[in-house]
Amino acid sequence: MLEADFILKHSLVPKHEVMSDTSVERLFKKYKLSKDQLPRIKNTDPVVDAIGAKKGQVLKISRDSITAGKAVTYRIVV
Question: pTM, whole model, 2 decimals?
Fold first, then answer.
């Protein structure tokens, strides 16, 4: 198994996906945000490397939550 597959399939690693430019625009418009306001994730993070995300891209991170069912957060790669 490749190292990237191992990282992404680990039970403690939530689903990370790179958002399209259109989806990012809709997100910013819906919540009246700018890229400066998003939490950051370093481009050296193993998951960022595994999914091939580049600086400036926005990631959608989905994790299971006992209270909310599913929790979604967004981070920008720096």
Answer: 0.87
